[in-house]
Design goal:
This protein has 160 residues and is mainly beta. The protein is built from one helix and 15 strands. It has one domain: Ureidoglycolate hydrolase (Jelly Rolls, Sandwich), CATH 2.60.120.480. It has one helix at residues 11-14; strands at 2-5, 7-8, 18-21, 29-31, 36-38, 52-60, 67-74, 80-84, 90-95, 104-109, 114-117, 122-123, 127-128, 133-141, 148-159.
Length: 160
């Protein structure tokens, strides 16, 4: 069995898979009478032909590390953004693109960090590390199938 050590979630490390959504650095704009910073246009949302943006709410059971992953999935018709509705760390698991997933990578998202998977990015299931595992998810709503699952030939263990 392969073991992967989760690394901190940074924009540079995560760039091949999608966008990191957080409020680091100075805001792009100050709005609301100077009382609110706006970090503007931080994700490349993609809903493909015939799709539209939808917002769903997810409540996932917390997992713990080490974590064993056996299945990854991807959404070939559009991007998928996960916005935690809590201030707790959570696990983001991805695999290199291709017809089948490449090597697994793992990231520890810090408090206040969300992500947007690019269209077609292989990824693990939603993996909160603490309750509540509540997330707002922005993804494609459409009439064509937008989920492909792939069982790994050998499970991968993710450690901190």
């Amino acid at each position: 069995m392969t073991t992967v050590t989760a690394q901190p979630l940074t924009g540079q490390a995560f760039a091949p898979y999608g966008d990191v959504l957080d409020c680091t650095g100075a805001p792009d704009k100050i709005i609301n009478q100077g009382l609110c910073g706006r970090w503007h246009d931080r994700a490349s949302l993609d809903f493909g032909p015939g799709g539209r943006a939808g917002i769903s709410l997810f409540l996932a059971e917390p997992r713990s590390l080490p974590y064993r992953i056996e299945l990854v999935e991807r959404h070939p018709e559009g991007s998928q953004a996960f916005l935690p509705m809590h201030d707790l760390p959570w696990l983001v698991i991805v695999a290199e693109a291709g017809d089948t997933p490449g090597p697994i990578q793992a990231f520890l998202a810090g408090p206040g960090q969300g992500i947007n998977f690019h269209r077609g990015t292989w990824h693990g299931v939603l993996t909160p590390l603490h309750a509540p595992g509540r997330f707002a998810v922005v993804d494609r709503i459409g009439t064509t199938p937008n989920l492909q699952e792939h069982w790994l030939k050998s499970p991968v263990t993710i450690t901190a």
